[in-house]
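Chapter review: from sequence to fold.
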Amino acid sequence: MGLSSGGSSITNTTVFVSQPEFARIHHAVPSYLLVGIEPSADASTVAEGVRQAVPGVTVQTREEFAASEARIVTDMSADLLRLMSTIGLLIAMAVVALGLMTATLNRLQEYAVLKALGATTGRLAGAVTVQVLWTVTLAALVASTLALALSWAVPLLSPAVTISITAAAVLRTTVGTLAVGLLAAAWPLHRIGVLDAATAFRETR
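The C-alpha cell string follows.
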C-alpha cells in the first residue's frame, strides 16, 4: 500500500489497485503487464524472450510504450489544442498589428513634418522600428509573466491541467509578433516615402 501523485492529465487519470480488487470490480484480464528487469539485463533481449514465451501478445520496451501512448494522446486532443492555440496566436498578432498601425497613423503628420524638415524616409522608418521593438518587447514580457502565473495557478485549481511555458515558444511568438508589428507599423510610412516633403505635409494636415 502507498500513495502516488502525478497520475492525472487533461485526458485521463491513472489509479493503482491490487489485482484481487481489480478482478472484483472489473474482470481478471489485464490490458497491460509491466515487467521489471535487472539493471544488467538487455531490454530488447528480455522483450524478445517474452514474445516467444507468450505468443500473441504485443511486447514493447519502455520507450516504445511511451511513444505509443503519446501518439494516442496526440490523436485525442493535441491537434485540437494546437489549432485553438494557433487561432488565439493569430488573433493576438492581429490586435498587435492593428494597434501599431493605428499608432503610426496617428503620428503620420508628425512624420510628415520631420520629412519636410529634412528627415529621410530611412530615419523615419528607424524611429518606427524602435517604437515597435519597445512595444513588442514590453508586450512579450507582460504576456510571458501572465503565462507563467497561469502555469502556476491553473494546476492548483485543476490538477488535471498542466501548462508548460518554454523559452523556445516565447522566442518564436516574440519574433513572429515583431515581424507582423514591423510590417503593420511601417506600411503607413510608404505613403510619405513615395511623396516629396511638401506634398507629404499637405496630405497629412
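Two observations follow directly from the output. Helices lie at 19-25, 43-53, 62-106, 108-116, 121-157, 167-186, 189-193, 197-203. The mean pLDDT is 78.
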